[in-house]
Amino acid sequence: MTNLTSPKLEDVFRSVFNLSSNADVTMLAQEDVPEWDSLAHVSLILALESEFGVQIDSVDSLDITSFDAAARYLTEHGL
Amino acid sequence: MSAGAVGPLGALAPVAPLSGAPDTLGFLEARRVLSRFEGGPELPFLFAMSGTHEPLAIYLDAACARRGRKARPAFLPFGTLGQFLATGASASGAEVILLFPWDFAPEADWRSGLPGARVDVAALMRQAEAVAGELARRAGARFLYVPAPIPPLAGYTFGDEALSRGLFGLAVRLGATVVRSDAFSLSSFLTSGCPIGGAWLGRVADLAVSALLTPPAAPRKLLVTDLDDTLWGGVVAESGPDGVAFGQDAAGYRHHIYQSLLKRLRSEGVLLAAVSRNDRAVVRPPLDGGSMPLSADDFVAICASYEAKSSQIRELATRMSIGLDAIVFVDDSLIEREEVRLAIPEVEVLAFPERDDELPAFLESLAGSFSQPSLTTEDRERTQLYRRRFDTLTPSSAKGADLTRFLTGLAMSLSIHNRTAGDRTRAVQLINKTNQFNANGRRWSDAEVGAVLAAGGRLLTASLSDRSGSHGEVIAFLMGPDQCVEAFVMSCRVFQRRAEHAFLASLVLHDVRPRGFRVATTERNEPFRQFTSGPAFGPGHEGVLSFDAATWVEAHRRHLDLFRVSWTGIGSTVATA
Questions:
Q1: What's the whole-number average pLDDT of chain B?
Q2: CB of A8 within 8 Å of any CB in chain B?
Q3: What's the ipTM?
Q4: Which of A5, A13, A46 is the best mutation test for B, with the most CBs of B within 10 A?
């Protein structure tokens, strides 16, 4: 993931989960966040698609269960 | 057209990268816009679509906020457009309806799986047309259409292709803004119920709000067509009624097909008018001949004159009491199109194609300009109703648009050739086949021209070229030893460019100074009469108009600025800016 992509990804996570602008989200994982339910997951996937101009397949979206997984996905797709 | 929207045949263009585009409404940008928005006039509207609308909500809010408006959207309670239409609820305010193929044909909905048996495409299209009829009745509704792929329903490829295209056509007839097909995400549709992929949410919302805030285009009512090289091939004043092409052959096919579309449009209530730089008596024979798809009776008016086409179109609009934005104008001439475009920006101006390959897109555009979902008896009889108003239409002499800036941009070059000695074949040919811009209509044999030159006369011609290419040798000028111009002709293909004015000014500046022009009125040379109507031409004596060279140069020196003028055949090549 590039130096430009990382701050944007952090902003997406903060925005989707309504966290403060200085919250550290890099360690965020679905199992630790009660608000990360199925609806929030859809919002996160669509926000990632919107912000990074990608189309995430439904199977891949199931694997994006943490900030780290999202970062890995974007890196694998050249972002 | 907004970014992300496409024309009817452009639906399969690749996705443009989203990141980095300054006007892209991405997720974070939408949030930023909303956080900074301080409020504005409310924009209440219904956003209707099949599927989950929630992901679009913040983008709709942000798209409104960007325009200084506070969004007040309402959504369908169950997200099923079909159920909503079935309730028969009429439009109670602004509506924007996002359509997918399955809104017309529910069997095409991916979430339903495939039907147990192959579908009857024709039956499905009839059902889809009924849905389109329901949608068309929603006064003021704006439509967006995503031509998403459909599941294989027909059991054979062509059937599914026909269905897709048929549904697309219904959407276009509704006047829908067509969104690129890749806005649809099957993955998103199957997992979240929202058929729009995340990468497209901002753009679709932007198109929706843009459609809401754009006044509906006035329905087009009147098609004004040029005649020469548009309704038929060739120039009737030069070739005669038997020399123009409109049949089902190589020369005429393009015009035949164009006429057949106009015939259909006329039967659907579109009004047809013709505007031509011609004499009325010249253009009637082909229209009255009975062998073309169209006849004079199909036109509410036939305006044949040498006045500006824009002024004829304004006159038509006034007499018909229709808005200028209800008019479509078709012409093959770049100059005529630009004159109308500059003088009446409200008129939609279309170029008649120069090549067969351009015909399909042109016809599609033309048919689309007059698309209407249903026809009434009044529509079909409209031409007769209007014809009665135009029995006495006389040409308007109102001034046309100033084309100076446009003509300058054409980068025209005028090459003047001295043909007094050497090959004069083209010059003699031009004199003998030109009717409209022709001083007196006299036909000359090569020997007669040779005799004038042998006695001390001069023969000059000019070639014209511009950024689109060469128009060839288009002017011929024969002056006798007594400085009387015996022949002066110019091809009608280059009317309106002021080449004849610049040519004569350049001649004078190079000491070719006629003392008079031998003129005679013919049935077709009204353009030349207009040319000699200025102060440089004096009273005639024995068929010769006097000519004041200094006055001409004073009046027309500015036309020389439109050309790069060069001279050849006077010892050496002389170029003047």
A1: 87
A2: yes
A3: 0.89
A4: A46
